[in-house]
C-alpha cells in the first residue's frame, strides 16, 4: 500500500513539474515544428521518382521450363549489379548529357525485385520529375541493348516504361512526417529542460521542503493572498463623520 501511495505521489509530482512549465514545453514544440516546416518547404529540394518494369525471360522459348525459370530469377541479382555499373551508367550519362557522374547516378537508382518473380523494377530519383522519367527509360533501354554483348543473352524485355504524370508528387521530403517528428523532439526537449530546471532549483517552496532539507519543524506559515486589482474606496468607512461623546 505504501509503495502504491509513493507511486501516486511521484506521478503527481511529475505532473506538477510539467504543468508548472507548460509554456516552455509548448514554446519548444512550436519552435521545433516551425523550424522543421520552414526547412522542409523552403530549403530542401523535393525529390521525384520514376520507375520502369523489366521482364527476364527467354524470348525464343516455346514451353515453360522450370529450370530455366529458376535460372532467370537468379539472374536478376546479377542484372541488378550490371545495371548500376559504369558499363551502363556511363552510356546513359553520355547519351543524355547529364551533369552527373556514374557514382552519383548509382546512388539515385534502386533495383526492386519480388521473390520468385521474373519481373523487377528500375527506380530513379531526381529533383526534376521529367528528368527522372527520361533517365529511368534510358537506363532500361541501354541495359536491354548492352546486356546482349555483356552476357551474350537475349532474355530482357521492357514491360512498362516510366511516364511523366500531370501533377508529379515528390517522394521526399515528407512535410507532415518531418513536422510531427520535430514536434515530438520539441516535446521531449521541453520535458528534459523542465526536469533540469526543477533539479537545479534549490529554493524552498513550502513547509515540506523546510522539514526535508533543514530538518526543522514548521511552527507556522503565511498563505499567499491573491492580488487585488481594484479597491472600492466607498467600502471604506468614513471615520471623519463620527463624533465622540464625552
From TrEMBL:
Keywords: Cell membrane, Membrane, Transmembrane, Transmembrane helix. It is found in: Cell membrane. Residues 9-96 form the Polysaccharide chain length determinant N-terminal domain. It holds the Pfam family GNVR. The keyword S-adenosyl-L-methionine does not apply. The chain crosses the membrane at residues 24-44, 176-197. It is a multi-pass membrane protein. It comes from the Bacteria. Residues 144-195 form the Tyrosine-protein kinase G-rich domain. Belongs to the CpsC/CapA family. This is Wzz/FepE/Etk N-terminal domain-containing protein.
Amino acid at each position: 500500500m505504501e509503495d502504491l501511495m509513493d507511486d501516486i505521489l511521484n506521478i503527481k509530482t511529475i505532473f506538477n513539474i510539467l504543468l508548472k512549465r507548460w509554456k516552455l514545453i509548448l514554446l519548444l514544440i512550436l519552435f521545433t515544428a516551425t523550424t522543421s516546416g520552414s526547412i522542409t518547404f523552403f530549403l530542401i529540394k523535393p525529390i521525384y521518382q520514376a520507375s520502369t518494369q523489366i521482364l527476364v525471360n527467354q524470348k525464343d522459348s516455346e514451353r515453360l521450363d522450370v529450370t530455366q525459370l529458376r535460372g532467370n530469377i537468379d539472374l536478376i541479382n546479377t542484372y541488378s549489379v550490371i545495371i548500376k555499373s559504369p558499363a551502363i551508367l556511363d552510356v546513359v550519362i553520355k547519351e543524355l548529357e547529364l551533369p552527373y557522374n556514374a557514382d552519383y547516378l548509382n546512388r539515385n537508382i534502386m533495383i526492386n525485385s519480388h521473390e520468385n518473380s521474373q519481373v523487377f523494377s528500375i527506380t530513379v530519383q531526381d529533383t526534376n520529375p521529367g528528368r527522372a522519367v527520361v533517365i529511368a527509360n534510358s537506363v532500361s533501354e541501354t541495359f536491354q541493348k548492352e546486356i546482349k554483348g555483356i552476357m551474350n543473352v537475349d532474355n530482357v524485355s521492357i514491360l512498362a516504361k516510366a511516364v511523366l504524370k500531370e501533377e508529379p508528387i515528390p517522394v521526399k521530403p515528407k512535410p507532415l512526417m518531418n513536422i510531427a517528428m520535430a514536434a515530438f523532439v520539441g516535446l521531449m526537449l521541453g520535458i528534459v529542460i523542465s526536469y533540469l530546471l526543477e533539479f537545479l532549483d534549490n529554493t524552498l517552496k513550502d513547509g515540506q521542503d523546510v522539514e526535508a532539507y533543514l530538518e526543522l519543524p514548521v511552527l507556522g506559515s503565511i498563505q499567499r493572498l491573491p492580488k487585488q486589482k481594484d479597491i472600492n474606496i466607498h467600502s471604506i468607512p468614513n471615520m471623519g463623520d463620527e463624533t465622540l461623546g464625552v
